[in-house]
Specification:
By secondary structure, this protein is of the alpha/beta class. It contains 12 helices and 7 strands. Bound molecules: S-adenosylmethionine (SAM). S-adenosylmethionine binds next to helix 7.
Length: 288
């Protein structure tokens, strides 16, 4: 994975994970199986301008962050150890918190598409879009979905400015993304999600537990995560409320994770306010 030495992961865990827990030979085989140049070129949206923080941050100690094949190849093998007690169980918690029966689903910051594919599996008739800023991560996501014969649309774009049509989704999910960006950008992502959801649509977020991260700051040092301390000082509930969502609720999920849900068009904070007061304000031209 090429982790640097500053994080606890880089200093202590990387040698164990990379030398004993990851099957390097299968990663080499996967690497050789992929025509990176062709796929990255095909999946790249030439209109995307990478935000400064994204291009410059060494997420997880990888120098080029998510903009390289090493990040994409090593993501799934590491993620299975980074989401205790069990990656699938942790992700399934988000799926089980969904209350509606969505027909159009958007997974923002989908990465290698593990959660996106679980969503497709849970709602087989739904149209599912996975959106990410790294064409390398999307390359792996697409390969995985083709292998499993899942019809998922993979889109290269910024979660904070997707270019998708307003009010075109019933469900938006965000898995492990918001702790990886400056808080101001995370808030813009939620504002964009609000614009994209139809009235009554749900947003579901799976991420690090902010309360626990505040109480045990050492946890923030495990992986090299440049923005996780800022994330820990904030409140997803407050962010969702500020973006316009109602019925906002966060649940602790196996202590170190949290699942947060909100609904567009349902206001729970101020009962005096009309329920759909802000809907007109999101009228925007179709950019999709
Ligand atoms: C930790 S990974 C999470 C991936 C996936 N959601 C999961 O649950 O495993 C964060 C992902 O968010 C993507 N990302 C980061 N900033 C983004 C942005 N502004 N817009 C879209 N994707 C972004 C990264 O490229 C990376 O694939």
């Amino acid at each position: 994975m090429g982790a640097r030495n500053e994080s606890l992961y880089g200093r202590f865990l990387a040698p164990v994970v990379e030398n004993f827990l990851i099957n390097k030979e299968s990663l080499r085989q996967l690497d050789h199986q992929i025509d990176w140049e062709t796929n990255v070129h095909r999946l790249t949206n030439p209109q995307v301008i990478y935000p400064h923080y994204y291009e410059r941050s060494a997420f997880h100690g990888i120098e080029k962050g998510y903009l390289c094949k090493e990040a994409a190849l090593s993501y799934d093998p590491i993620a299975q150890y980074a989401l205790p007690p069990n990656e699938t169980w942790v992700r399934q918690g988000l799926i089980e918190a969904i209350q509606g029966f969505p027909e159009r689903i958007l997974d923002l910051g989908c990465g290698t598409g593990t959660l996106t594919m679980m969503l497709k599996n849970a709602f087989l008739g739904a149209e599912v879009v996975g959106l990410d800023l790294s064409p390398y991560m999307l390359t792996i996501a697409e390969l995985k979905s083709e292998t499993e014969c899942y019809n998922i649309h993979w889109r290269h774009a910024k979660a904070e400015a997707t270019g998708l049509q307003s009010e075109s989704f019933d469900l938006i999910t965000i898995g492990l993304l918001l702790h990886e960006m400056p808080p101001g950008i995370a808030e813009s992502v939620l504002t964009e999600a609000y614009r994209l959801l139809r009235v009554g649509g749900e947003i579901l977020i799976l991420d690090g537990n902010q309360k626990v991260l505040r109480q045990a700051p050492l946890l923030a040092d495990i992986f090299e995560e440049p923005f996780i301390r800022d994330y820990a000082q904030c409140s997803l509930d407050a962010w969702l409320g500020a973006a316009g969502f109602g019925a906002v609720q966060s649940l602790d999920h196996w202590l170190v994770h949290q699942i947060t849900r909100g609904v567009k068009g349902v206001r729970s904070q101020n009962p005096e306010e009309p329920l759909f007061a802000d809907i007109e304000a999101i009228e925007e031209p179709c950019m999709g």
